[in-house]
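Entry 14. Structure prediction run on the chain below.
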Amino acid sequence: MFVPLLLRPLWKALLAVAVVALLAILGGRAALERIEERQLAESLPARAQLAARAFGRSIDPTSTPEFARAELAELARRGVVHLSWIDARGHLLADSSPGEIERTDLRALPEVRAISSGAASGFSFDPQRGSAAAVVALEGDAARGFLRLSQPLLALERRKSALTTTVLGASAGLALLLAALLGWNARRLARAMTRLAAQAEAAASDAALRLDVDPPEELTDLAVALQRVATGLGGRLEALARDRNQLRAILASMIEGVVAVDRQGIVLHSNAVAGEILRVPPALARGRRLRETTRVREVSELLEQVLESGESAEREAILPGVGEPRCVQLRASALEDARGVRAGAVVVIHDITALRHLEDLRRDFVANVSHELKTPLTAIQGFIETIVGDPEMPEDLRQRFLLRIQAQSERLYALVQDLLALARIEAHERVLELAPIDPRATLERALESVQPTAEARGVALRAEIEAPTPRIEGEVGALEQIATNLLDNAVKYSRDSGQVVLRLRGEGREVLLEVEDDGIGIEERHQRRIFERFYRVDKARARDVGGTGLGLAIVKHLALALGGEVSVRSQLGSGSTFTVRLQRASS
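Output returned:
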């Protein structure tokens, strides 16, 4: 029973023999390569020089490539080498074995680079490729360029093989000898340990029995102690594994990124969310310094601060990335070991980009609503104060002021109505009952409602509705409001005497409602925000044309409620096209 245990030194000895044999083979092969390289560095350029002289004398300006190849093939056959004729730029002119190196970039070869840089000759030795090469300049009145001579390292490979065979044979003999010696020693020790085990077993039932050897401890007591240790350790390891798995599950399910480092700043753990925010896979970050794996210096600096001070810290950071920058909140704390000694630090990364965006929207919304409400109220208040303060005001002037008060009241009423409508849509208080509808009549009513505004500005309205009219899955009121808002917006921002085109056409399982104008257009940087409430591309022009600034926001939310979406395609100075994709009715 003790033989396998006692034979472990045999495996170590055999492993040592294998390592020594491997080192001997590698060292011997390296020595052979160095010797071969020195010999070839002396002989190969000289042989290349002789071949260059012979080849240079045999060619003239009238020599054809076929003649040059034949000459090179003859010289190569005599010397059992490979010859290539190349020009000063490293391009192949002729080769003793066509096709062998035609696809090789000769300019990248070290021997060609050496002679191209002005050396008298170039030489390379490449055991990996199994060849050595030399390059020399051609000699002769009609010669031009260089001659490259390469030779396979056949002799070197034979000597390497012989060395490997010799070392392996000697190692095998030594291994057999060691196996015999260690096996004999293992059997001898096993017999002694068997006797010790028998005496230990007898000692378990007879306390007066003493072992006739002097072990460190009685084997029976050692076995019992080891069993107790193993039982206790197994329970602890099971508890640790359970806690570790629970912790991993918790960290993996967190929406925040978590990175833990030791005292040296080496990453101990990084969950998937942290990898996505820092743009470094957790497997790549683990075991390396955080600074080496990510360019987000704010995280590294905060962790270093906590490692140095031991105090918790937090900060916000803007992380550049694809598209909009990300705003993150970083909170770092120190980690302590079982003795209360600082062992590292952990940082929690919370992406608050959406929160900041919502705060910006809320702030802008409050500011815009306040402005939009204040403007008509201020006008109404001013006109009323003027009328009240001048009892003798002419009737025609009083009537004009009252008409302006009425216009501002209507503007205020329209704003409140749009705000309420948008609030109902967003709160899902307005439930749309979708049904198959024919949109032609609805779109015609929308055109009629916008016609007076278009005529006042000299804008021509035109409809292009596909025949037969594709039916949509929608709701008449929502579709009419979408079309009216888009048409009204297009008319207001069209050029004077321009035109607005409303199109309806089917496209696969969708129906596209398009409103195109030839107005001022929208810059690309504004297009992704054009559907936000109160967002104005040109605030000065928006005040001139009127409107509440909520029309496109209502279009967006109604399109979503209908199961579709809205988009804009525009170029500054060339007009805009708003497209609403709606679901085609199934019947």
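Residues 183 and 524 are 83 Å apart (CA to CA).
Filed with the rest of this week's runs.
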